[in-house]
């Protein structure tokens, strides 16, 4: 196997994004660039220079249509909807001729991928919103405990990360406890519970919506549904892709002053893995 360098990795992911976008446009599926990829498009018109992944999002019904209908000789979709052994909470579009080794789990084998996120509606009541999202976050923690290595480290269980100091150790010890207890359950069990809860409110009839299955930004993901009503094209690399017309609201909600670059010491990729071409 030959290791894939960062430039090759970005090209593989970008080519997958292009094919994803063409398929969605051809089949009238609504999609948007999401999270850091959307930030990269708006601020850099490309990848965030120190980032190494691509995220897209679709309303739940379009998401499920994509997952169940996409076909390509070079790429494939992995999601619990079509693969009972899939452990992720959300879908991934994967490159067949690659292998990815992660620090998150021993003997972990994956493919180079882009993340595909479902956008779900949520009820109007503010109190119920908070309760529901808190419960979903608990289920997400349970799910994470089933797929991480049993070591209390900075980022769940990156085997190359250092042990935390005691100032922030309590949170890590709680994660460690979950890994040792609920970690013995199957991740698919929690994925089905999470998605079952999230699908109870229809996206089209909701007044509020967001990508809640990830748990990455907590309640910052909660947006007025109108944010996703209209799209505009935005340059990302060589081509234009769809983003929310009200991208400023979305990005401000997630990142605050998103046009300000972070300190140099924080300009680091978020993922701990190495990728290879298959022989």
List the keywords.
about 35% helix, alpha+beta, seven-stranded mixed sheet, about 280 residues, three-stranded antiparallel sheet, globular
Describe the structure in brief.
The protein is an alpha+beta fold. The chain contains seven helices and twelve strands.
Shape: globular
How much helix, percentage-wise, in residues? Answer: 25-40%
Order of helices and strands: EHEHEHEEEEHHHEEEEHE
Estimated structural class: alpha+beta
Give the number of domains.
Answer: 1
Query: What is the mean predicted local confidence, pLDDT?
Result: 89
Sheet with the most strands, sense and barrel status: 7 strands, mixed
What do these coordinates show?
- With 279 residues, the chain is α+β, with helices and mostly antiparallel strands.
- The protein has one domain.
- It is 33% helix and 20% strand.
- The protein is built from seven helices and twelve strands.
- Strands 2, 3, 4, 5, 7, 8 and 9 form a seven-stranded mixed sheet that branches. It has a three-stranded antiparallel sheet with strand order 1-12-6, with no helix packed on it. Strands 10-11 form a two-stranded antiparallel sheet.
- A hairpin with a 2-residue loop joins β10 and β11.
- It is globular and about 50 Å long.
- The N and C termini lie close together (5 Å).
- About 3% of the residues have low confidence.
